[in-house]
């Protein structure tokens, strides 16, 4: 029994490369493998649970999916986009589709789920709810894939996720010349100045070429955003998906060494979640913001409306994989670790986040759960998944 659990854990943790791709050895993946081995030992030391190594779902890197698996995933996203929304139009007139319910919820809660103690658990629940909608409402049989930043950091536009082919999530936008750098967090406080990439306009090819994103922008990074009729960004504002894939963001802050130092140099939850989200004044973008700017454009570069670009969920699955790895490396201390407060960067000062705080996803339509429940991806309440 124990032997087979260990074997499963070791197998799942092994770096599996598709035959056509170069085997790149990443320390990030070695840490994930070490973590899943420790998770296997932890599970084996506990009384038997409903969710175990035999029935656990395994989320995989996009490049390791077969062509058909990729097409099935893409078809499920397109399906979600065709279903009617559950958000009352009086609350968010721009939420036209089931896909938009997720975007509207994220926009609505943006200022209580970033720079706060629930950042990691909220986005974990959000990504899971999206995966479940693809499965339960659109017949998808797989799980949410992730985008392993360091694997593609030298040239993200060539990655299978962004290469613009019919098995990608579409690629870069049309090149718009003569653009300024993007200042982060804002022009008046230019902690980081990112050069424009090779896109900036509407995406050129692939399955999402003719998509319209309906909500936002709220905090646009493009120079000429189409303004939303509603101040909060929840009005109807159909426009093309724009991207500006940034190898500068990817190379600068999502290399293997960047991810490894995030995981290994931050034993406290507070430091881990804070470092991940960057220190802009100090010129440090962090993997979270860098991953968003690797996609860039509108709504990809917009803190509020970013889930309007379906690449969002691949980035956030990787954020979750890194959090999961960090937890697995010291489960005793980190499985139920928490820190930070309930206001963005504790401004204004507020109470500490606790494990009993609730996570709600509005009209996405899933029950509220506690951060404690969301802390365990194999707790069965409601999660039962790991990452390869
Ligand atoms: C936004 O959040 C408020 C407060 O939680 C809630 O009452 C409202 O229904 C939410 N709106 C949407 C569109 O989710
Ligand atoms: C670039 O920045 C300058 C100075 O802020 C501004 O005047 C100009 O309009 C900007 N150009 C574009 C294309 O955004
Ligand atoms: C958190 O980070 C700060 C600043 O880098 C450091 O001084 C502190 O020792 C760290 N705390 C822990 C527990 O790692
Ligand atoms: C909040 O958390 C900090 C850091 O862990 C701790 O020092 C402080 O005592 C906590 N505050 C309250 C009111 O519990
Ligand atoms: Cu977010």
Automatic annotation (TrEMBL):
Residue span, Tyrosinase copper-binding domain: 114-131, 309-320
What InterPro entries does this protein map onto?
A: Di-copper_centre_dom_sf (IPR008922), Tyrosinase/Hemocyanin (IPR050316), Tyrosinase_Cu-bd (IPR002227)
Q: Which GO terms describe its molecular function?
A: metal ion binding; oxidoreductase activity
* Record keyword Metal-binding present: yes
Q: Which domain of life is it from?
A: Eukaryota
Q: Which residues form the signal peptide?
A: 1-17
Keywords annotated in UniProt: Metal-binding, Signal
**ATP-binding listed as a keyword:** no
Name the record gives this protein: Di-copper centre-containing protein
